[in-house]
Amino acid sequence: MTFHLALMALALMAPAAPEPSRLDRAQANYEALAGGRRHWNALSPRELEDLRAFADALRRQVRDDRTLAERCFDREFGRYGRTLTDLQQQLIDMRCRPIGEPLN
User: Fold this and answer.
1) Which of 12, 77, 83, 96 could connect to 72 by a Cys-Cys bridge, CB 3.0–4.6 Å?
2) 52/76 same-domain check
3) Residue 86 backbone zone (phi > 0: left; psi -120 to 50: alpha; other: beta)
């Protein structure tokens, strides 16, 4: 847990992405840190910089596995707020239901 918090803190101060060979070393350092074979205090400033860039690259690759309907519902729910009236819920159901699916 502490490792992940430290990695996230480092990622917040990330500079521009390093060249590919440095990213390969950053990935190796990441795996060593995650496996407990290395401690983040033992990394050089350059390795920490590369690790921050690697963590940013990982974070950008996170995929959104929600369906279009789920994304639509989340967007509409955010627009109306936490408490929906029955009419607002029906409107969201109409806007976000997949084509051909009957209304709830």
Assistant:
1) 96
2) no
3) alpha
